[in-house]
Design a protein that fits this description.
AKR, binds NADP nicotinamide-adenine-dinucleotide phosphate, globular, NADP_OxRdtase_dom, 41% helix, 324 residues, TIM Barrel, two-stranded antiparallel sheet, alpha/beta, eight-stranded parallel β-sheet, 13 helices
């Protein structure tokens, strides 16, 4: 397992973490093919293999994800770094403090290692939210402050609101296909020693190579993800084929190659979401090999040549929700 520091804190975190949006969420197909036992075992398998960064959120499964994470790590608290998130509707001063108490209770822990603001809230002043975050640090309820889905401008503004603390991370969408973070956020984060936490690092399963025009996932999450729209899925098959070819040289799966490419090119941490211990194990082993320069170059050229449609029309979105 490869490790890095969380921002400039010196706290050691694994470059492959584990994402838990899938836990308790019917939009992902919860209790249709996987359930609580799979989820608990997935976390424990990941930790056994050296993963120490676990990402959850108060919104996931209406709190069930936090409960499951808490259950899974009850005996392992000191080995893991627990990151959870506050939903934007709770980002008033008192809202933050109360939400944190609820998360601590569900997780069954005394402090949260990394408390992240899930999305910016355009209505509630960020200064209020950050004041509450600093209060929570002082109280020892959280160790570090992070944000998620913040643009560079929002990140800088949020940092300016903090008196004594620093923002140590920004969690954003980042995978081989969706690389907007490379434009502004990554260069800034590298300069300022802010960790970029890459969510959807497998493009919601697409980069594992199991989806194609004959096998399109039917769950709500991916019906709403334009990458799974037929023309895009078709356009991405060459990349998937290449991931398979490269992977076969190293005895690795396409998903492992995609994760390896992500964490070896830039010092980000990837948090693939999982549904069971088999997926957790495969992902945890994604950093165990080194793609050679030639393969990195071939893959990078391939992703740079990809042209896909990035936005659904409103009509298409409604149609996909209704008809799948
Ligand atoms: N901050 C935010 O706003 C935000 C947004 C999204 C996600 N996140 C966080 O980031 C995490 C990851 O993102 P994500 O869940 O959107 O996407 P992802 O990690 O790219 O994809 C997860 C999906 O890929 C499939 N998968 C995972 N590992 C696999 C393996 N080894 N082999 C085959 N299939 C595998 C699973 O679905 P199937 O088996 O059904 O294909 C899984 O549900 C989330 O769990 C959450 O913690 C945060």
């Amino acid at each position: 397992m490869l490790y890095t520091s969380l921002g400039n804190t010196g706290l050691k975190i694994s470059q492959i973490g584990i994402g838990t949006w899938q836990f308790g969420d019917r939009w992902w197909g919860w209790e249709r093919g996987y359930g609580e036992e799979d989820a608990v075992n997935a976390v424990r398998k990941a930790v056994e293999l050296g993963v120490n960064f676990i990402d959850t959120a108060e919104i996931y499964g209406g709190g069930l994800s936090e409960r499951i994470v808490g259950k899974a790590v009850r005996e392992l608290r000191e080995q893991v770094v627990i990151a959870t998130k506050i939903w934007p509707t709770h980002s008033t001063y008192n809202g933050v403090i109360k939400a944190c108490e609820r998360s601590l209770r569900r997780l069954g822990i005394k402090y949260i290692d990394l408390y992240q603001i899930h999305w910016p809230n355009p209505i509630i002043p960020i200064s209020q939210t950050m004041k509450a975050m600093e209060y929570l640090v002082k109280q020892g309820k959280i160790s570090y402050i992070g944000v998620s889905n913040f643009s560079l401008k929002q990140l800088v503004k949020a940092q300016e609101c903090l008196k004594n603390e620093q923002i140590v991370s920004n969690q954003v969408k980042y995978n081989m296909i969706e690389r907007d973070a490379e434009k502004e956020l990554l260069p800034y984060a590298e300069k300022e020693r802010i960790t970029i936490i890459a969510y959807s690092p497998l493009a919601q399963g697409l980069l594992t190579g199991k989806y194609n025009l004959d096998n399109i996932p039917k769950d709500v999450v991916r019906r709403l993800n334009i990458l799974f729209d037929k023309p895009n899925l078709e356009a991405l098959q060459n990349l998937i084929q290449l991931l398979k070819e490269v992977g076969s040289k190293y005895g690795k799966t396409p998903g492992q190659v995609a994760l390896n490419w992500l964490i070896k090119r830039r010092e980000v941490i990837a948090i693939p979401g999982v549904k069971n211990p088999i997926q957790a194990e495969q992902n945890a082993r994604a950093g165990d090999f080194r793609l050679n320069e030639e393969d990195i170059k071939i893959l990078t050229e391939a992703v740079e040549g990809i042209r896909i449609n990035k936005r659904f029309s409103k009509l298409k979105m409604v149609k996909r929700l209704i008809t799948g």
